[in-house]
Design the sequence.
């Protein structure tokens, strides 16, 4: 009999195999946070994305951010002040944050 995993495990594996879906998920997560200020939900989704990209230790290696620091940020609601400040800066200057994959080639119009 085949063993069933939970939805989150399946979704993490899916995002790990589809980089476009992972970026879309991260963008949607950010848009939802900007719309409703639900930081715990945002951090949960961010943890899901990070798990799909190899986890905290892998992200830590690629970004140079200490793994413990990154884990604390992802599990602590103290991130609210930083995110709110950043959001205020963007809103004041009528800017928005967009997440896009920089590895894809952008075609210029003909």
Sequence:
């Amino acid at each position: 009999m085949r063993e069933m995993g939970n939805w989150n495990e399946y979704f993490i594996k899916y995002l790990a195999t589809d980089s476009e879906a992972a970026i879309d998920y991260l963008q949607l997560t950010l848009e939802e946070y900007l719309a409703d200020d639900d930081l715990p939900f945002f951090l949960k989704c961010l943890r899901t994305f990070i798990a799909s990209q190899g986890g905290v230790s892998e992200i830590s290696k690629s970004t140079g951010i200490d793994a413990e620091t990154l884990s604390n940020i992802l599990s602590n609601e103290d991130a609210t002040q930083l995110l709110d400040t950043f959001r205020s800066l963007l809103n004041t200057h009528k800017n928005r944050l967009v997440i896009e994959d920089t590895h894809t080639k952008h075609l210029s119009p003909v």
